[in-house]
């Protein structure tokens, strides 16, 4: 694999910095904590690390509310610590990807404070999205739109104007028509590229371009009828392409060019592909598997569609089952499949989103959980993805088979999705609980003085130190899988990808000699002939339920 294309088949490990490892006993994970665990990442065998935001932030949204894009939150470390971490990762051949949050800043950003201090119509206000209120005393918001985390999308500032926020009110949206905003982000990209980062994960990549020129703006009810795309005022407009064309020029100033992957919650693969072309970000997340029932028909269609679309874009596909925004896969896949009865949102992909939300909200009582099957399926799903062409994104703790944490007292929750959606959401804290490194001790080895989100008593049994010594553990399995993948990959990359006939409820594909067979059912399935290289469950003369097997 040439150095330029390292990302095409990479295994990328997502770190949520506040919850990975705490080096200075303040209960908050930090950069030096991550640096102390570089050996762990090397032994796991990942190709790259993606760091969720570590910038100065008042944490209205877990750091996705950035005060200063070109600095490190002092609670997480310093810029010197950052450089040391990049060096330590690079010394082990691991790339570093950082999260860029260009849709909105925090209200504490210097430019937002300047906007508040300046009059309506000023250049300072033009960097954000300010509009006059409606009605004789301008007290009515410019539209009745809602924000993603609940509540209205427009916030009054007291002088007859409102500003727009897609997310929390503390996250004002940038005006991407403003040349200063555009130039400032180019500066930020260069800043981190000059600090040695190999690439960027672009937050809400599909939301930057906005057209709020309609007068009056559509009502919320009308908005709900407009498809994401050129006619939508803010989702997936064509003008995002121009923004990323500019970014691409910056990426290509470097050798090798800097990599980028967009967070693109866009359903139509051909629209998504625009972000993935080499003249744009280069890669786009597809979250199809992350929302799909564990079922051979779904998985086949999703994989086929995404391989084709990535190919057409000249990119490589992404495979994701977990991240900091969704219920952990070991739990999600232990729930009964999403159906029209247990889920409001119905689409062809069998979306699980709504079912998960309801289940979390009920404290785990709404539907029965089969934890053992959930773990088996999440391992099988990840092993299936790791064998596919494209890159696989693993979220910290997924390699441990870590389940979602339900037992967080309301008073200790942090997610605005919980606070702003009273009674409708518990939010995303349950997948952000600091990792267990040891079976006992304060915060299970996360640090020496507690953890910013409470860990449940049962966390210790998933500890890294226990799993590292147990050849039958989930961690041991993924170490083996990633090592084997590295050996098989060079030949597989040049080989032809092919599907093979297999019994209902199973899938079988190959890349040259490397064959993968997944049994998606709860019953044993006949095993194709071949030499078994790896299996997510001990194979007998059949493929056990919920199992992926690599063979040749
Ligand atoms: C993205 C992030 C999520 C954040 C939101 C607003 O979806 O993944 O964590 O809350 O953007 O920045
Ligand atoms: Ca700390």
Q: Any idea what the shape is?
A: globular
CATH class (first level) name of the largest domain: Alpha Beta
Radius of gyration: 23 Å
Mean pLDDT: 95
Quick one: how many beta strands?
Answer: 18
- What is the straight-line distance between the termini? 22 Å
Question: How would you portray this structure in words?
Answer:
28% of the residues lie in helices and 13% in strands. The strands form four sheets. The protein has an eight-stranded parallel β-sheet. The chain has a five-stranded antiparallel β-sheet with strand order 12-13-14-18-16. A three-stranded antiparallel β-sheet has the order 4-6-5, with no helix packed on it. α6 packs parallel to α8, α9 packs across α10 and α13 runs parallel beside α16. About 1% of the residues have low confidence. The protein contains 16 helices and 18 strands. It has three domains: 398 residues, Glycosidases (TIM Barrel), CATH 3.20.20.80; 55 residues, Oligo-1,6-glucosidase, Domain 2 (Oligo-1,6-glucosidase, domain 2, Alpha-Beta Complex); 56 residues, Golgi alpha-mannosidase II (Immunoglobulin-like, Sandwich). It is of the alpha/beta class. Bound molecules: alpha-D-glucopyranose and calcium ion.
